[in-house]
Fold:
Amino acid sequence: MRSISSTMFVSLDGVVQGLGRPDEDTRGGFTHGGWGPRYNDEVMGRVLGEGMAQAGDLLFGRRTWQDFAKVWGRATDGNPFSELMNGATKYVASRTLDDAGDWENSILLRGDAVETVTALRAQPGGDLAVNGSPSLVRSLHAAGLIDHYTLLIHPLTLGSGLRLFEGPAPMVELELTDSVATTTGVIIASYTRRR
Structure:
């Protein structure tokens, strides 16, 4: 059975919305978009690179997949992250997409995310890595499908915005397996779900 890992950039108060750009995700009147890049450093790049090198296939929710397809899908900059993202098999869980042809090597998982990902997880193949996609992560978390979490906890509070765990969620115990502090104060914490 494939394992599923989730990597999320999160503020100290749990916000996961609009990390990269001011216009990335303005739902709900969110005005703090672009809060993450100023915290990037070599340590973060190294840790994320190591994680991506171990990842098998990628798993996305619709909104994140569409955003990444625009940014990464057209990248020709020679960046190893671009090459990895474009070359990897990408699964997109969606109830509304008609097809996944906008980004090479993408496969649409149409229907209920928990059902389609459960079926995918049972198939032979590489492990699955979810980058971003907070709505998908919340659903998979509630269903007990995520095995490993990497949280990049940024040293700021935003006060508003979509949070990683909003609404009812089951109690889940996690074991800290690694932690690294970056030069900008981000704590990269890796956890494994206790069964």
